[in-house]
Design goal:
Length: 316
């Protein structure tokens, strides 16, 4: 099967289901959200599974020109603040009212900073159809004394909907430039909806696979950021490629150990998908990554052996 061939994922999608086209709303309009909307818009224009219009909820901002971000996206089909110079597609419609944006949606794509998801779910509760399916592109998790909550579980419990995840070695600007990339959809139980998510995101330059392991896929996207901080320390201390490779290898083992400790059903094979080892490599090698940068900024405290000053971490 070629990179762009998604026909294999039609299995399990009945003819009757093709008669009811899904309507897509992307919740979030930052850099990654805009790229996701662009990928989706490409496929909704040609696939019989989806209504061609893609709505995108925009947290309203005023551009330096004085124009509202929403109006600029709808006028120019470009997110001039977060993805300048990239056409999102003629079928992308921005909406600053989240309830209006999701009103007719049957599939929701969550791609906002993780700290906003609780407030968003409160706004959406009771305002979406019970049959809506969700997918989270958000990397992160909530950690409290009571335990760990993954973002997809937070969405699932707050809204009472099924929620898959999409993670991988996905630097948004590279995907916007149509450089070849991969991603992993993690799902639980419903293989048919997983196949639809693959259909929705796959393009010749963005290869998506699905695995029945929501927790494994999602926690990989979170824990690799911790390893990236260690990779930043390696860079800041002037150590070489051998040291960074060792940190990444050990880090992958620790990711697997902690993932299995928190979620015993996590599959070992998930760590060899794009969401696992590939995302880890990309993040640790990306000198502009915020987590790598945090590691570099910790270097003075290691050099001076000021370990009692760990409260500095809260400022990072």
């Amino acid at each position: 099967m070629s990179f762009g061939d998604t026909s294999a994922f039609q299995d399990g999608i009945t003819t009757s289901s093709l008669n009811v086209k899904d309507r897509i709303t992307v919740i979030g309009s930052g850099n990654w959200g805009s790229v996701a909307a662009r990928l989706i818009a490409i496929n909704t224009r040609t696939s019989p599974l989806f209504h061609d219009e893609v709505r995108i909820w925009v947290f309203e901002e005023i551009l330096p020109s004085g124009e509202k971000l929403t109006n600029a996206i709808n006028k120019y089909k470009e997110n001039k603040k977060y993805l300048p110079g990239v056409n999102l597609g003629p079928n992308v419609v921005a909406d600053p009212d989240i309830r209006s944006a999701v009103k007719d949606a049957t599939m929701l794509v969550f791609v906002t900073p993780h700290q906003f998801i609780e407030g968003i779910c409160k706004d959406l509760k009771g305002k979406i159809k019970p049959s809506v399916k969700g997918i989270s592109l958000i990397k992160g998790m909530e950690v409290k004394e009571s335990g760990v909550t993954l973002i997809s579980n937070k969405i699932r419990k707050s809204l009472g909907i099924e929620c898959s995840v999409l993670m991988g070695a996905n630097i948004a600007n590279e995907i916007a430039e149509e450089m070849f990339s991969e991603a992993t959809v993690g799902y639980k139980g419903n293989k048919t909806i997983a196949q639809k998510w693959v259909q929705l995101f796959s393009t010749p330059y963005f290869s998506v696979t699905a695995v029945p392991d929501v927790e494994g896929v999602e926690i990989c996207g979170t824990l690799k950021n911790v390893v990236a901080i260690a990779a930043g320390l390696v860079d800041g201390l002037g150590m070489g490629s051998n040291t960074k490779a060792a940190i990444m290898r050990i880090g992958l083992k620790e990711m697997r150990y902690l993932a299995r400790l928190l979620f015993p059903t996590v599959n070992d094979t998930t760590f060899f998908e794009s969401c696992g080892v590939a995302d880890l490599i990309t993040t640790c090698r990306n000198s502009g990554n915020p987590c790598v940068d945090k590691g570099k900024r910790l270097v003075p405290f290691f050099k001076n052996k000021c370990f009692p000053q760990w409260p500095v971490q809260r400022q990072l």
